[in-house]
Amino acid sequence: MTIREKLELDEKELLSPYAMLSMNSKGRLKEEEQCDIRPVFQRDRDRILHSKSFRRLKDKTQVFLSPDGDHYRTRLTHTLEVSQNARTIAKALRLNEDLVEAIALGHDLGHTPFGHAGERALNLVCPYGFKHSEQSVRTVDLLEKDGQGLNLTYEVRDGMLNHQTESMPSTLEGKIVRLSDKIAYIHHDMDDAIRAGILTENDIPVELGEVIGFTTGKRLDTFIHDIVINSLDKDDIVMSEEIGTAMKKFREFMFESVYVNPVAKAEEGKAEMLIKTLYDYYLKHFELVPPELKRLIDCGETKEKLVCDFISAMTDRFAIAKYEEIYIPQYWHG
Q: Taking the model in full, what pTM does it have?
């Protein structure tokens, strides 16, 4: 018996009857030999962690574009906070931590530079539309490893695809990540907004604070405890009506105060223009798209999708550098 097989039996013995066991995975897009040490979801987690798209998250905007301070969140630190929230909940409920972590680490791999401003821009200009959740799956299925993809399991891909509000994952582990993503961003975006001087704790409506807490730490503790207490020994991941409603209202408060705040979002119009301009440029000059993407034309991919792939993979810094290289005159160095 291999180490992997022993670990799979441990899962069967120790985890909740509602957990997604590694041995019961629906498998991968392409069949491959099992690892003798790692169960499938641990292996997926490792593949994501070592991918180029994961490393690029460190230079992609979360909410504040190119902030001066060292302590503002990036897309990478957001991802790590989602992962930690999700693992805490999964451990308490005896669900599969490896699956939760793999989904959490992969859920934003397809996000654009400049956060949701970049996503909006590509969605407007690309005839196929653009959603970062779909792009995350496309990244691991097709774009990573020069067109080979990471060949992840069905359950991880399902959790990545369905982590947003309008959809629902098929596993409890995916549902944990879906909630943990919302908890993470309303928690850390409030913290960053206070750091930026846009909000103070006193701006939070008193009736909300009395339910979920008047500090970022207390609110995080309230949300996670509520999920664990109300999901224990259930075939679902749920919140109490009181806390669930309060979280929804707090999220609405954040949208009004931060996500559409003209001070916080002053540069987003420029970012959208930059992304749209790069899209038009590379569509007209497709020969400048990286060769590993151009080769996918032979697999039936369209130029429009491949230009989206190229731009969405850019970091904020790389996108700005490309725009300057193409459109900003350079001083003559004779």
A: 0.95
